[in-house]
């Protein structure tokens, strides 16, 4: 039966196979949607704020504009504005089908049996579909990385200046989708793997770099003109090293001069608020009970006290005072802690991200006013009003799925300028309106259980990675260095996220499919090498694919 199935697949190799695969992916997406109705994803509210503020000369959300980048806001905002959740879900289905097709086309460059296995595997593996059922940067990054996999492999195996320029264009697209993807500038080294003289390789690399760099630099100049900062994003200085120390609960009030000054600001501007004062929360308890709300509040607090130009120096110094390992690497000039980053990448490769249910209830429950940590009562972040120090960061701090709880009733608390206060109300009202149709469906519980079982039974990315590497060493299939390069690019993206935000497996979802693709191509790729060009990466004449 397997031979007959492969023979049938062989007969539809090419354009017909691409059309069939695209249609099958649409069908799979529709089935999965019965279990996972399209819903709001992580940070979707901020992407909508960015979209609505794109043409604002002066905005109440300057930090949203300096933290986010424009591709995801445009992909989410335009369909929502034109056709609501139905239009955005259609875009998500197209991206899912396109990503499946792109990975199958990548595998077809190595062998048609590999493309069959990749296509079938991605369609039946629920984890690959998860990002496409929620409005977030994950689905855009996932589709973009699949496209990068195809254009990068095609360029290395059949090189030309235009193809490497296309690699640069996709790299720029991914960087402007999610700032940590800036590590994908490493793709400019891909011409090293292509056949040709060193002069031609330099030309290809230059074309890739130029096409990737120009849009990114233009965006940075735009940020400088509009907001006074020549930057791609403030995410790195927000996260490293402060987030790692804060969310681990290691920060201490008496660790050093920076920590003592920070503790004084917390006592003065945070713990003096009624919710904290009523419970008698002290600085030590506060620092041992980190939440996203408090992290963003402290960023905003330092902005207001030391100015945005300080780049959170107080938080960085306080974090280094309690992180001796990170301080040691900082003295060596390393921007990250390689030990902790490696550990986080390993955890990303060995954890499964499940589907997070954000379907809206018929009536929102009232959150409990307090929570208990190590015998101490603290205010529940979901029940707190928006902290005025953090509102310019958008909704990044918000601990509630109910958007109303995350919007200031009186924006004049945070904005002295009445124009900004009025614009805050306009933008937040529109965000509330746009996202109202997301997460309104009903989940088929039986199907959701089956998909969850499928998630748990699918091998971990680390397993596919290990098998791929062993197969490359044992078989040395045609073009194996290209597969190794794609794996390296994925690991770089994981390292960027591991250094900044830890080991949340959701951040791995867009790039870990490459481990399965590399495994299939390493096991089933053609081993034949042209004797006249032994040692070079041979060209593959046809990029046709098999469903």
Layout of SSEs?
Blueprint: H1 2-11, H2 15-35, E1 39-40, H3 44-52, H4 62-67, H5 71-108, H6 112-124, H7 126-129, E2 134-135, H8 137-157, H9 161-175, H10 198-227, H11 235-239, H12 242-247, H13 257-269, H14 274-279, H15 283-287, H16 292-306, H17 313-322, H18 324-331, H19 338-349, E3 370-373, E4 376-379, H20 418-435, H21 445-457, H22 461-475, H23 480-501, H24 513-524
Parallel strand pairs: 1-2
Antiparallel strand pairs: 3-4
Helix pairs in contact: 2-5, 3-5, 3-20, 5-6, 5-8, 5-24, 6-24, 8-9, 9-10, 13-17, 19-23, 22-24, 23-24
Task: Explain how this protein is built.
With 547 residues, this protein is mainly α. The chain folds into 2 domains: 18-230 and 441-533, no CATH class; 235-337 and 353-435, no CATH class. It has helices at 2-11, 15-35, 44-52, 62-67, 71-108, 112-124, 126-129, 137-157, 161-175, 198-227, 235-239, 242-247, 257-269, 274-279, 283-287, 292-306, 313-322, 324-331, 338-349, 418-435, 445-457, 461-475, 480-501, 513-524; strands at 39-40, 134-135, 370-373, 376-379. The chain has a two-stranded parallel sheet. α5 runs parallel beside α24 (513-524). The radius of gyration is 25 Å and the shape is globular. The chain starts with a helix and ends in a 23-residue tail after the last helix.
């Amino acid at each position: 039966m397997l031979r007959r199935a492969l023979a049938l697949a062989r007969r539809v190799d090419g354009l017909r196979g691409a059309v069939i695969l695209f249609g099958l992916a649409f069908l799979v997406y529709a089935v999965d949607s019965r279990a996972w109705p399209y819903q709001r994803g992580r940070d979707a509210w901020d992407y909508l704020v960015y979209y609505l503020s794109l043409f604002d000369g002066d905005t109440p959300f300057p930090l949203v504009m300096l933290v986010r980048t424009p591709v995801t806001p445009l992909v989410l905002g335009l369909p929502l504005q034109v056709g609501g959740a139905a239009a955005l879900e259609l875009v998500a289905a197209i991206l899912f089908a396109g990503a499946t097709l792109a990975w199958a086309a990548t595998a077809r460059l190595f062998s048609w049996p590999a493309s069959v296995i990749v296509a079938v595997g991605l369609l039946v593996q629920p984890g690959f579909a998860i990002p496409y059922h929620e409005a977030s940067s994950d689905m855009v990054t996932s589709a973009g990385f699949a496209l990068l996999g195809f254009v990068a492999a095609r360029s290395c195996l059949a090189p030309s200046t235009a193809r490497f320029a296309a690699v640069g264009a996709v790299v720029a697209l991914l960087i402007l989708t999610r700032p940590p993807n800036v590590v994908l500038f490493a793709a400019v080294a891909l011409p090293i793997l292509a056949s040709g003289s060193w002069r031609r390789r330099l030309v290809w690399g230059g074309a890739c770099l130029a096409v990737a760099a120009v849009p990114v630099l233009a965006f940075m100049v735009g940020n400088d003109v509009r907001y006074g900062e020549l930057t791609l994003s403030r995410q790195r200085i927000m996260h490293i090293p402060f987030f790692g120390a804060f969310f681990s609960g290691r920060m201490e009030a008496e660790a050093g001069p920076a920590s003592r000054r920070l503790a004084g600001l917390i006592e003065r501007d945070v713990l003096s608020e009624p919710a904290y004062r009523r419970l008698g929360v002290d600085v030590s308890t506060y620092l041992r009970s980190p939440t996203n709300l408090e992290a963003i509040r402290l960023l905003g607090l330092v902005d207001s006290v030391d100015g945005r130009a300080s780049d959170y120096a107080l938080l960085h110094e306080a974090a280094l005072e309690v992180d001796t390992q990170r301080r040691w690497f900082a003295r060596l000039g390393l921007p990250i802690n390689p030990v902790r980053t490696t550990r986080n990448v390993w955890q990303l490769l060995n954890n499964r991200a499940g589907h997070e249910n954000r379907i809206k209830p018929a009536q929102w429950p009232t959150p409990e006013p307090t929570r208990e940590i190590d015998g101490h009562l603290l205010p529940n972040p979901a029940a707190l009003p928006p902290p005025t120090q953090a509102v310019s960061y958008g909704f990044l701090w918000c601990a509630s799925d109910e958007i109303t709880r995350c919007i200031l009733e009186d924006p004049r608390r945070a904005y002295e300028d009445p124009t900004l206060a009025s614009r805050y109300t306009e933008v937040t009202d529109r965000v509330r309106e746009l996202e109202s149709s997301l997460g309104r469906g009903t989940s088929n519980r039986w199907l959701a259980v089956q998909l969850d079982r499928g998630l748990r039974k699918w091998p971990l990315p680390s397993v596919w990675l290990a098998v791929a590497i062993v197969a490359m060493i044992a078989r040395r299939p045609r073009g194996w260095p290209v597969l190794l390069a794609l794996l390296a690019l994925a690991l770089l993206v994981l390292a960027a996220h591991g250094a900044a935000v830890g080991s949340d497996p959701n951040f791995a979802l867009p790039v870990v499919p490459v481990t399965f693709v590399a495994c299939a191509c390493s096991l089933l790729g053609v081993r034949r090498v042209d004797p006249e060009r032994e040692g070079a990466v041979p060209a593959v004449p046809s990029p046709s694919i098999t469903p």
